[in-house]
Amino acid sequence: SRFTSQVCHAARRGAGAHAMLSRMRWVLTRELEDAKPLADELKLDVVPCIERHDLPWPAWPKSPLVFVTSAHVAKRLRWLTVVPGTRIAALLPVTATVLARPDISAEGGAVALAHAAVKWAAGKPPVEVLYPTSDQGLDQPEQLEAVKILEGIGRVHRHVVYETRAPLNLAESLARHRGDGFVFFSPSAVRHFIAAGGVAAKVLCVGESTAKAWPGPPPPLLATTETVKKVIKENV
Questions:
Q1: Sign of CA dihedral 72, 78, 84, 89
Q2: Average of pLDDT values for 189-197?
Q3: pLDDT higher for 165 or 140?
Q4: Which of 129, 174, 196, 228 is at 20 to 30 A from 30, Cα to Cα?
Q5: Which CA distances in Å does 156 have to 53, 77, 164, 181?
Q6: What is the mean pLDDT of residues 189-207?
Q7: What percentage of the chain exceeds 70 in pLDDT?
Q8: What mean pLDDT is reported for the chain?
Q9: Which secondary-structure segment (H or E) carries 130?
Q10: Phi-psi region at 75: left, alpha or beta (left = phi > 0; alpha = psi -120 to 50)
């Protein structure tokens, strides 16, 4: 009957939606080198939504405190010849691990690291703070707040040392994962994903600034660099 046909059609459609959801995979949006360890461990796909392009390094202030909140900056800094008296402030766990034994470290983002720097500087003369960042980082509210805090211990020199761009053919790469779940590690990756017409069944944002960049829907899951693996496993 016509009624039976409608019911069967609806059942098939519901079954198809369930199958699509069950086939959803998490996709990492970092550059391949950064994504590889987690992708290999959890057997995840990778579609890089950002590319980093280095810019010239600025002149060194005298005996600076270098404020490092980016793993990319940390990797670059590792190969530079630093001036005598340089001190390093770096975020845990990734950035600090890259640099190995920074003078100041903290978890929780740029603001937390700035507060740790203020504590370290207590009772010391004013310092010159070198804050290398990206073109996108210049306007991030979290970084702007960190700069205000750091200005309490000395002059802050902010310099763009790399640019973030969308990879070529990003739209085509995302189209092959339409309806999968995507893990974002930076606001830039979110913006490039949206501009390229990406469609996500689920979204996981690492860090509050990344989550704020996601316009929704769907509402994003939130993780830190320490908990991202756990959150992915709980939402497969």
A1: positive
A2: 96
A3: 165
A4: 129
A5: 23, 18, 23, 39
A6: 95
A7: 91
A8: 87
A9: strand 129-134
A10: alpha
Burial of residue 182 (number of CB atoms within 10 Å: 0-12, 13-18, 19+): buried
Q: Hunting for tokens 């003078």 — which residue is that?
A: 103
H/E element, 33: helix 32-42
β-bridge pairing 87-91 and 65-68: parallel
Residue type, 22: S
List the one residue out of 107, 6, 114 whose CA is nearest residue 65.
114
Task: Give tens-digit pLDDT for 49-100.
Answer: 999 999 999 988 888 999 999 888 998 998 888 888 999 999 887 787 788 7
Task: Give the range with max mean pLDDT: 86-95, 195-204, 212-221.
Answer: 195-204
Torsion of CA 60, 62, 63, 65, to 10 degrees: -60
Q: Which residue bears the tokens 């804050």?
A: 131
Sign of CA dihedral 70, 207, 41, 134: negative
186-216 exposure pattern, b = at least 16 Cβ within 10 A, e = fewer: bbbbbbbbeebebebbbbbbbbebbbebbee
CA 159, 211, 113, 29 torsion-angle sign: negative
Look up residue 54 and give its two tokens.
């280095």
> If you count them, how many residues does the chain have?
236
Average pLDDT for 186-200? 95
Instruction: Give SS3 for 165.
Output: strand
Is 204 in contact with 184 (CB distance < 8 Å)? Answer: yes
Q: Are 123 and 157 in contact (CB under 8 A)?
A: no
Q: Which amino acid is at 155?
A: R
